[in-house]
Amino acid sequence: MFRLVPLPLCVVVLWAVFAPMGHGQTLDGFATLPYLASADPDAALDRIGATLDAMEQGEDADPRVIHDLYDLAADLLVEGGQAAQAAQIRARLAGFAVQYRDFLGIDPLPEFARAVALLRDTAQDEMARDTLLAMYDEQRAGGAGQGVLAETDRQIAQLSEALGEDAPDLTGPLSEGVFTENTIYYATTRAPSGEPDAARYFDDGRGDLSFGRASVTLPASPGPVDISKLRQVHPMDGRAWARDMTEAAPQSVLVYIPDAATGFEQAARRTALLTRALGGVDLPVLFSWPASASSLDYMADSAAAGAAARDLDRLLALLSDLPDRPRLHLLARGMGAQALAGALERIALRQGVDDPPRFDQVIFAVPDMDAERFTDLLPDLHPLAKRITLYASDRDWSMQLAQRLYGSALRAGWGGEATLTAPAVDSVDLSARAGDLLSDPGMLSDLAMLLWRDLPPDQRCGLTPEPAGAGDVPVWRYVEGICGNPALIGLLAAMRRADVHSREAALALLESTVSDPALRRRFRPVVSRLWPE
After folding, report:
1. What does DSSP assign to residue 218?
2. Which pLDDT score is estimated for 470?
3. Alpha carbon distance 447, 428 (integer Å)
């Protein structure tokens, strides 16, 4: 029987010992676990239990892996007729998703919904009621309307009555204006799930390239935690989508290609959050390839990423043909780099010798692909963009997972002493920054300077060159300091929105935007460097 480790305790222990593994260490049995689950569910449960026991003792630690192991265990327990135990795991996973939302990037609401359904099916009314109360709090914090909250309230009252207790008096919805609705465009090779709910509209299966818009709500005033929600998915045919893009008349477009283990819902929210953090001036386009939502499907995701290159090529060709030729920025994270590199390789074959660059900024954020292949491709990719930037880190979760699976085989995004350099790329090592790089203020500030001003690393903030030798291409190491202050990315976003074009205008906006005199003084040299003498 699968032993249920107390999940919150397990996570507290793991968080304290979470540290990078060496390049040669691998996660035994991890890559084959999904196949074992299909062939021998009991053996898979035994392996999950052994892996979690090892993690609890501090031998290995990654909250994403912990979540995905428990998620798989719950599914296997349901299949094996142990639905009651699975329901308890689902309830704990929902709380885990709330507690570590910024690390996991998971919207807890679908987790709560699955837990409640299973708890009610197994007549665990008290836990179902308590889970619904936590779900209500999450819905309200995320800006749910009166109708959604009323339905959850009704279920809570029903279960309270069954338990012989009074229904709790719950607070109503937040006032209007607390959240803003943000539209992103998407192109995806995912198959529709058949579910009407936006968060589950697409599944992990592969489909034909399709297009549409999605609506994401974000807090009007950004807070310390991510409570963004995907609200609507609006499919469109390709012609209508292109026409809509043309009517939007963007000056710049940011195409985001997400990592492995990232579902459509999570990628859509990330696209909206990233676009707003960078000033909201780039028209956001998400290319969602059919990655699984689980880190356990890493190897399958690798195959899917490579297969997505042809359709990404089609999307980029469509965007290149937009009237008025907006600036096209491409940002791939983790395994999404495999799709982007493959698409650019195809485009390079059609690029004439005298053709101007098709793209403005091409950015590979901790690219999860073979380092040698990445280096070999760079000379062909260089003519396609004004600038190619590599962000590397030896602390990023995707690099940690890749190193565990590939051992000593170097990945292009690995940082520290292994940071890749080449004449065709600016290499920035962000190993000094912990957590999710695409929500890190230091990286976001650097991205804003890059997209806005096309600045080389020596004119951006917080980057120090570390040449390997005389005449060698340097690695630009991120150094902790004022550049990681969250107020800086807010200032840069305001400058982008105001379309500032001079040092004088930028300094004037600094004076009117930042009220703290000490902070203004520290920001002045940063702003001045954006317009060198």
Report:
1. E
2. 56
3. 11
Report d(CA 518, CA 521) in Å as an integer.
Answer: 5
Tens digit of each residue's pLDDT (9 = 90 or more) over 210-267? 999 999 999 988 877 888 999 999 999 999 999 999 999 899 999 999 999 999 999 9
pLDDT digits (tens, 9 = 90+) for 126-160: 999 999 999 999 999 999 999 999 999 999 999 99
Our measurement of the distance from residue 27's CA atom to the centroid of its chain's CA atoms, rounded to an integer in Å, reads 23
Q: Which amino acid is residue 271, in one-letter code?
A: T
Residues 221, 234, 240: CA angle, nearest 5 degrees:
115
Tell me the two tokens of residue 315: 């999307």
pLDDT of 103 over the 90 cut = no
> How many other CB atoms are there within 10 angstroms of residue 390's CB atom?
28
Does residue 11 carry a pLDDT above 50?
no
pTM of the model: 0.92
What tens digit of pLDDT does each residue of 54-81 get? 776 654 467 888 899 999 999 999 999 9
What Cα–Cα distance (Å) separates residue 170 from each residue in 140, 145, 366?
Answer: 10, 14, 44
Pick from 418, 350, 310, 434: nearest CA to 22: 418
Domains of the chain, CATH where assigned: 7-162 (1.25.40)
Phi-psi sector, 183: left (phi>0), alpha (psi -120 to 50), beta: beta
Output the DSSP codes for 62-101. -HHHHHHHHHHHHHHHHHTT-HHHHHHHHHHHHHHHHHTH
Among 322, 308, 297, 244, smallest CA distance to 69 is for: 297
Burial class of 45 by CB neighbour count within 10 A (0 to 12, 13 to 18, 19+): buried
C-beta of residue 444 within 8 angstroms of C-beta of residue 493: no
User: b/e for 425-451, b at 16 or more Cβ within 10 A?
Assistant: bbbbbbbbbeebbbbbbbbbbbbbbbb
136 neighbors 116 (Cβ within 8 angstroms): no
In the block, residue with structure tokens 């937040």: 174
